[in-house]
């Protein structure tokens, strides 16, 4: 009886020691694992209405991370991607961002496409002092210390595009049909454009604004109305439609025979990837404004396209393995990850505040053929602007470009009250 | 598009006939096509057009199609790997020359189109001249005036002559003589094309100094009158176009809801997985299309003929499996049915996501579904939408015939109206149940085929139609096929009527509010069943 108890107790003690040792060992290996890699979050919709645009950004981010790891990683440590799917669901973006920052403890997040998703994650990044690289053109009106914007601000995309369409070369448009998806980016962009057009002497009756919900598929009435509106004078359509609605919109344009030489449509969220799967022959001449096109000819772009084609083939990416396509937000993602790497190497740490400081003035030889530079102050890239016309093969012919990179104006001068805003984020977060 | 194909054929024949005479093109003008400046390119295009030499047509067409290249002062036409000198037609070895593409934009493309049309005005075939005259009537460059005038004098065909007169008027509208301008405006009043309206509206515009673009008040009055007559002429086709877009939306709703009208309407099953039956139909179309593209590319245009029965079978079989394994245990328990079918819908979505990926898949329209039917010069009824309206009508007809004229249809009606009595009469109710549910699901599959032709095909496809489908069935009156049809078309028309005024977002809200109010007033929907059948 007694010996039994003693034996039992001893066995229990031994078991405890063993257990503790195992736990220690596990913890130690976990620590070793953490020391080996730097975790990097990727926050793009892989399902839902935005998947058409965002999935490929996840892939290009993984490619870039693989490329950096192949060159020895960052600070001698490999990057470990953590991919989550916020499913085109804006509140879910915030939840997933919190998970990445608080639970996975990632050093940086690359992600978001729509401005509504960025607005949704912004408080999380500011609260937990995270770091977000946002790779898509957007409406401006925002400057957070925790975000680097590698896409275009309105003066790097929307304004030059409209100026081009007003010029003789662009057709001399007199009337403007502003068509967008119903959320913050199209509404703010159109507010800026309306103010800009007014400053150029365009009357209110010559501007029409129309919005459709996310995922809208029936563009019959809208295209018919564009035709009717165009009868009142040379018209251009400015499309800020986002996501998979673009496919039915462009199909309807083609079927109803709205030709680019009569009524050009310039789009700010449509690139090579969105036009995949649309027969572009009837769409020849419609325009897009970006800071990069796949059809640009320069060594940096050739290299970028070659890498992407090889990666897509190796990873068997649907669509891209047979027909690799690159676009502007992919380029912006690529630039962003490389610049972050350079900043970390400069700061010699992944600490967010140190990296933010080191980001200022970083430069990178971008696939656009120009040196992209992170502004010293305003967290935006200096980028060149290209305006392209759709070709029959779904690529774009560049018909206009800026002589070189231009500086971003996140606070558009066409929105009243912006004159007094500082062109740099507050160093201490507002809350 | 047989018409455009005919034109292409005629054109090819005509070009062959022209290939015989020696090239006597203005070499300087051809070289100028490679100029950096758009204005210079347009000038060169204009020169080639004004010369009236048909040998310029292949060069201009190559320029239009991004096939014209410049290399060391020569202009080349490059097709695939073969390059020929544009002037002499000799083959050129491109390996050494490194040709640069000549880029055109919309402005230059406009000039090319009107130049090509000008050159084709002398073609002997009526079809070609008509197409050319149509193009020019939309607006022509000032340099084309002598060419058009000459063609007008030769032209014997009244329709072409009228179009040519309009084409000349689009140029003369810029004449310094107010009388000529007035005459031109009067001629333009005969047009029915929106470009003419655009041109006339331009006259009434004020320039930067606040003066009218058109200084003469009489011409302005004439222009206003012309705009009014053109608008009046466009009213009927535009109204038809608007009605058609409502009909088209209605037939999409009808196809989405018809299956539900059977499973929910007749059988009383609240099937939240109905949307996924649509999705299965759409994905079946995708699979059939992929198979055709890989194995029978020459028969690609006919893939829908296979996709329609395949989608019906696929969705129908999934429906039968669901009914046999799950839903039949839940008859008479609407709440549990609702929850279970909702769960099933999530499972189906995830299954499709796992098999086909989360991204949308591309379903290409067969070529006969691209383009559209013209109602005058302004309104186009897109072929894919016309096809869907006809398809919806056909499906409704078949379902109606099935229910009214076949023995199984009789059994279905009997079972849904009074199950116990039907059982007593010896009708095998369980068999009728699964057949009916399979039929409803199969019809949803057919709806999926239609949806794949106009929208995006992704795992979430069904989610966006389930609410609309229930809306249609409830509004039409549960258990009433007629009600479903009228409700679907009615909702489509109301939606499209509201959209121009309220916008797509608000329009949809108005429709929902309208339905809520309507159901308050008439809970049974548009058509209520009367008598004993109502309690079944």
Fold blueprint:
The complex is a heterodimer of chains A (431) and B (536).
Chain A: H1 2-36, E1 37-43, H2 51-70, E2 78-84, H3 90-103, E3 108-111, H4 115-127, E4 132-134, E5 147-149, H5 158-166, E6 175-181, H6 184-199, E7 207-212, H7 220-230, E8 235-240, H8 246-255, E9 265-267, H9 272-275, E10 287-290, H10 299-315, H11 328-347, H12 352-359, E11 363-365, E12 371-374, E13 381-382, E14 386-390, E15 396-401
Parallel strand pairs in A: 1-2, 1-3, 3-4, 4-5, 6-7, 6-8, 8-9, 9-10
Antiparallel strand pairs in A: 10-14, 11-12, 12-13, 14-15
Chain B: H1 2-18, H2 27-32, H3 38-51, H4 56-64, E1 68-71, E2 74-79, E3 82-85, E4 91-92, H5 94-97, E5 100-101, H6 106-120, H7 126-137, H8 145-154, H9 158-172, H10 178-188, H11 194-203, H12 217-266, H13 274-295, H14 303-325, H15 334-356, E6 372-375, E7 379-382, H16 383-405, H17 407-417, H18 419-424, H19 429-454, H20 463-476, H21 481-521
Antiparallel strand pairs in B: 1-2, 1-5, 2-3, 3-4, 6-7
Helix pairs in contact in B: 3-6, 4-6, 6-7, 7-9, 8-9, 9-10, 10-12, 11-12, 12-16, 12-19, 12-20, 12-21, 13-14, 13-15, 13-19, 14-19, 16-17, 16-19, 17-19, 20-21
